[in-house]
Give the backbone structure.
Amino acid sequence: MQQHSHSHRPKSEKLYNEALEHIVGGVNSPSRSFKAVGGGAPVFMASAEGAHFTDVDGHRYIDYLAAYGPIITGHAHPHITEAIIQAAREGVLYGTPTEREIALAKRLKAAIPSLDKVRFVNSGTEAVMTTVRVARACTGRSKLIKFAGCYHGHSDLVLVAAGSGPSTLGIPDSAGIPQTIASEVITVPFNDVTALREALERWGDEVAAVMVEPIVGNFGMVMPEPGFLEQLCALTRAAGALVIYDEVISAFRFHYGAAQTYSALPDHAAIEPDLTALGKIIGGGLPIGAYGGRAAVMEQVAPLGPAYQAGTMAGNPASVAAGLACLEVLEQPGVYETMERLATRLADGLSTAAGRHGIPLTINRIRGAFSTHFCGHPVTCYAEAQDTDGERFARFFRLLLDQGICLAPSKYEAWFLTTAHTESDIDHTLAAAEHAFTIMAA
Ligand code: PLP
């Protein structure tokens, strides 16, 4: 591993300047921009293998971005790569049903019992967007209650108070969303049952659904407080609305299943949603999304029911093959335990080092994923995540990057361990963090 040499990235800079001429903002997703961490050229990666990237300047990095979640088995995992090559050889798109779609649907159903029926789409955004349409079709109501700071993709309705991406760039609510649509969304603080109850009392008979990330991944990693999801489900159903879980990040991240079936959240029967949106990991790194739920709810969807949703690329054979291969890897014994062990060592090491240098740092870790918040208070809701030191994060981010440690360029995003990270990666990262904290404390 090269140390301290990564700050000279002339090829990335050249490519960024070229990209700025042709691609808006030089990036194809605003979360890739370095705007929130002091600006300048993002690193252009050339290749990736396991837990490592190589950039266009030849520098090697340890990757904790994991492409914002999907790359849980590390890059170019041989089993997934083989599945993609095989799928490509068989033809990349048919526009007809395929057998493997059934296999992936069965796997999802077996791991997440609230899914009686599923439908594959191309992204988490599409999956979430359609769950709202289905809930509206089921209830004949139009409003959505969501939680501040939860990000549910970039469709109009859910971009209100939408967490990591927009917040990083200081865009509270996107332009281009008509007031008529924004007025359909009610936002309440995460983990705040009283606020939810009040919102349902006021608007209950107009509310089609309450949508939540059952374990939050978009203003750091945040667990629901005990009883929060139970009460959310009970209050929502009492109001005649549907519960939608956005498990685009959380499904298969913490165990072989979803947050709704995770043993740290007790009483699964009481927290089961009506609809679930999925994405990221279930495509093994290729574009995918899926939504599903109880049969009676899903039967609202065309061709059975009146709620229309379609997709030329949906159920893409390569994505489905990659997703199946990825889940096969994750099903192996010990996989999540190993990621958790490494994440614990890393998070504890960061915490101890920051403490030693007198730098307040709150780390929220859930198994193999965690978030670092430069503050001296707990982070249990969006307001607390906002009230953290973004400049300090930016400094930390750059000091790590210049030593070959790659994080997401946002104080709200998580660090993700993969099955490819090793003890040696953790050693290097902790040494780099020690160096960073020393400079930051000086
Ligand atoms: N829902 C959650 C919880 C997410 O974190 C994301 C993306 O980060 C999405 C939905 C949107 O997924 P996609 O980027 O695949 O459209």
Summary: Residues 68, 123-125, 128, 151-153, 213, 217-218, 246, 248-249, 279, 289 surround pyridoxal-5'-phosphate (CB under 6 Å).
